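If your schedule permits, I should be very grateful for your opinion on a structural question. What I wish to show you is a protein chain and, alongside it, a tokenised description of its three-dimensional fold. Would you kindly read the sequence against the tokens and tell me how you understand this chain to fold? Here, with my thanks, is the record as I have it:

===
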Amino acid sequence: MACFAAGRAFAAPHGMFGGGSPAWREVASTALAYGIPAPTMTSALSYFDGYTTERLPANLLQAQRDYFGAHTYERLDSPRGQFFHTNWTGHGGSTSAATYNA
């Protein structure tokens, strides 16, 4: 098993995280609402959500990578493997990932 959370003992809906997720969220949000630091709990919840969510909104991250380094990106409305690059500034020229001396 690649990750312990993928095992049946932990996975939804019967596992210890599956049924406890709403309570976990309530405890974390209550701690935050009262100004109680809960970095481990909230980070673990974010990690769990990221690990168990099939599709995450990484579009902002992909757009930033493309803007600053011409990394290209894939779109959900296009076939898998088709990459796009956007001229974000509209000023022409080409942008490429390279090194430079400052």
Observations:
- Helices lie at 21-33, 39-52, 59-69.
- The chain has two domains: 7-52, 57-92.
